[in-house]
Amino acid sequence: MIRWKEWLEELYAAHSRLLGFAGRTILGLLIFSSLCGNTGYRESLNSPAVLLGLSVLCGILPAKATLFLAFLYTAAQLYALSPVALLAGGGPLLILLLLYAGLAPEDDRSLLLAQASVGFSVPLAAPLVYGLTGSGTSVLGILCGTAWSYVLQAVRGRKEALAGLQVSLTSAADLEQVLSEAGSLLNGILRNRSLVLALAAALAAWLAVWAGRRLVIKYAWTVAIAAGCIVYLAVRLGGAAMLDVGHTPAFYLGLLGSAAIALAVQFLLFTPDYRRAEAVQFEDDAYYYYVTAVPKRRSRAQEE
Amino acid sequence: MTRLAVSEKEQKKQLRVSREYFRGDYIGAHLIRNFFCATAAFLIGLLLWFLLALDTVVEHLSVLDVEGPARQILICYGVTVGIYLLLTWIVCSVRWHRAGKVRDGYRRTLQSLEREYARKGRRIDRTPEPKGDDTGE
C-alpha cells in the first residue's frame, strides 16, 4: 500500500498538471452525476456526453465557475419539470449560493462535494473529509451543499404534482393552483425536519473532526474520524427519536462508506509512523525548541 | 531558495492579499460586495415569502395596512444584512491576519537568504587569489 502511494506521489510530481485536471474532471463527473440522479427531468441533459462535457469544463474552470455551472444545470432541470419548480426550488438555492459565494474562498469545492456526497448516500463523507483537510469556512459549504441536496429531494417528492404545471395568468383558478403548488413546495422545503436534522448532524460531525485533528496526540486523524462518526450517529439517532424521522439500513451503509472514504483520504495525505517518533531538544539565538518529530511512513525500498 | 519558491507557489493568494491591500481596503471591498449579495438574497427570500403568505399580503394590502408589515420587513432586512456583514468582517479579518503571518514568514525566509548570500560573499572575498606563474617576468 505504501509503495503504491509512493508511486502515486511520484506520478503526481511528474504530471501534476495533467493529474490535477483529471482529478477535477472526476470530481465534476461525480457532482453532475449526483445532480442528474437527483433531478433528471430533461432527457437531453441526462445524456453521458453532456455530463462528460460539463465535467471537462469543471476540470478547466475555477471552483466558483463550476458552482455557477452546477446551478445553471439544476435550474435547467427544474425548469424542465415545471417553471413553478424552478421558482420554488431554484429560489432557495439561489439564496444559498449568493450568501455562500460572498464568504467562500476561491478554490473551495466543499458545497458541490457535500451535495454530491448526500446525493450518493454517503452524507458524512464531506464533513469528515473537510473536517480533516478544509479550512473553517468549508463548514458553510457543507451546510449549503447538504441543503441543496435536500431541496432537490423535496422537489422530487412532489414531482407528479409539479410535472407539466405551467405558470399561466389566464384564469384565476390556474393562478391559484400554481401559487398553491409553489407554496406547498416551499413549505415542504422550509419545514423539512429531515433537513434540519441532517444540517445539525453534519455541523456536529464537522466540529468533532475539526477539533479532533488538531489534538496533539498519536493517531489524531483516526481519532477525529471515529469521533465524527460517533457524533454524527448520536445526533442523527437522537434527532430521529425527537423529530420522528426514520432511518433505513442504507443510512448505516452510507455511514460506513463515509468512514471508508475519510480513511482513504487520511492514507493519501497523512501517514505518520508513530513507532519511530523522536523527542528532540535544541536551541537557537531566540528560542528553545522541544520537538516531537514523527517520520512519514516510507516503504523499505524508499528508505534504503 | 527552494523554501522561498515553494512558499511563493503555495501561498501565492495570501501573499497577494497582504501585498496589494491595506487591511481596511480588503475588508471594506468584501463588505461592499457582500452587502449587495445579502440584499439580492433578501429580495429573493422576500419574493418567496410573498408566495407563501399571499393571503396575508393581500389582506394587508386590501385594508391599506402596509406600515406595520413594511416596518417588520425593514427590521428583518437590517438584521439579516447586519449578521451577514458581521460574519463577513470576521472571516475577512481572520484571512487578513493569516495572510499577514504568511507574509512575515516569507520575509523572514528572505532575510535569512540575504544573510546567507552576504556570508558567502564575504567568504569569496577572503579567498586568496591564485598566484600567477612568474617565470616569464
Key structural traits:
heterodimer; A: 304 residues; mainly alpha; 2 strands; elongated; B: 137 residues; rod-shaped
Write the layout of secondary structure elements.
The complex is a heterodimer of chains A (about 300) and B (about 140).
Chain A: H1 2-14, H2 16-38, H3 43-46, H4 48-60, H5 63-81, H6 83-103, H7 110-119, H8 125-133, H9 138-157, H10 159-162, H11 172-190, H12 193-212, H13 220-243, H14 249-269, E1 278-283, E2 288-293, H15 300-303
Antiparallel strand pairs in A: 1-2
Helix pairs in contact in A: 1-2, 2-4, 2-5, 2-7, 5-6, 6-9, 6-11, 7-8, 7-9, 8-12, 8-14, 9-12, 12-13, 13-14
Chain B: H1 2-10, H2 12-20, H3 23-52, H4 54-62, H5 67-126
Describe the model.
The complex is a heterodimer of chains A (304) and B (137). Chain A has 304 residues and is mainly alpha-helical. Chain A has 15 helices and two strands. In chain A, helix 2 (16-38) packs across helix 7, helix 5 (63-81) runs antiparallel to helix 6 and helix 13 (220-243) packs antiparallel against helix 14. The radius of gyration of chain A is 23 Å and the shape is elongated. The two termini of chain A are 17 Å apart. The mean pLDDT of chain A is 86. Chain B is mostly helical and 137 residues long. Chain B has five helices and no strands. Chain B has helices at residues 2-10, 12-20, 23-52, 54-62, 67-126. The model of chain B has no long low-confidence stretch (mean pLDDT 80). Chain A binds chain B through residues 87-88, 91-92, 94-95, 98-99, 101-103, 106, 136-137, 179, 182-183, 186-187, 190, and chain B through 13, 30, 33-34, 37-38, 40-41, 44-45, 47-48, 51-52, 54, 84, 87-88, 91, 94.
